[in-house]
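User: I'll paste a sequence; please echo it back and then give the predicted structure.

Assistant: Echoing your sequence first, then the prediction.
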Amino acid sequence: MALEVGREQVIAHRWRAHQLDREPGAASGLDDVAMLDVGVQDTGPVAARWALVNRGLASYDEAEALLAWTVRSSPHLYRRADAAAVAVATAPLSENDAARRVFDASKPLRQAGIPVLEALAVIARTQRALVRKPMVKGDLSTSLTERLEPHSLRYCRPCDAIHAWENPFRMAPLQAGLELQPGTSPPVLQRITGLRPLYFRTPGTQAEPRFDQVRGYLHHFGPARPQEVAAHLDSAVKDVRAHWPDDAVPVDVDGFPGVSGDRFALEEDVASLTSGPERAGRVRLLAPFDPWLQLRERATLVDDRARAKDLWRNLGRPGAIVVDGEVVGTWRPKSAGARLTITWEPWAPLTKAQVVRAEQEAGLLAEVRGQVLAGFVRAD
């Protein structure tokens, strides 16, 4: 029989799993931020840094952090000490999974009779050979194009040039023992000291449980279905099902939108799921790509279609004002030199205390960005 819980219990469990319920400065260091086991996306100004601040980490030694293209070929922050484990955990689960993750790049490989993992390994080895000192992405792309076979290249209409497919290009560096220099635009890649390249020899199915991406999604966004995990990873559903944790238990959630397929949670999370919702009044201004907003079954968080469309728009996404896990509004930044103005729009009435706390968060965000808060303005 499936475990039965309510929507508010699920939101409260996820809020705790994300450690968004913590007091400012409560985290003792990078090891004390659990989300770094599976990576924190760094898309947007100080995005990963701000996500860590929201999880209680006031500051950290940047030398102990690692930035790499991993999940969905996006830049994610990790602990440097975990580089080898992360390289395994973020690798494709199988040849079929690799074909899914590279999207259209798999078609010319199939036509040429080349396994996707083999082609990815060639790209990784070539990148490793080219990046002997820090190298700008564009320069690496040019040099890589000169060395790859036609089945690994494509014509790019916006660039009016032939170069490597983007997803394989981004999937290969960590497997080649390369990282991204933080704060560089265009990106600069460099070798990771002490990391032995994997070259896609070890599948993600061999990940340590702590860093396993399927388990990580179930912990942070459970109860969930294999379809959501696969969408989160740009993976194949059948590979996710084949790698499904043995300790995942079925859960029925009262108050979630009706969708086909059973939801599951990790057995270790049952106690948290069955706990009562918390009403601490914690207010967060979460960035557009904060992990809290990365769930795939978005209607379980925001069931209003118009609001969801705005919050998760493809371009120009706003941030979210969140109180105890519930999205209650959006915010947008505007910079003018060293001055930052935050314009916010509530979806529901906020108390005076919540508005004050939200403005305090805006001030802290400005500080993290190296700016001063010029205004916290409600949208007309």
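The CA atoms of residues 85 and 207 lie 7 Å apart. The longest helix spans residues 352-368.
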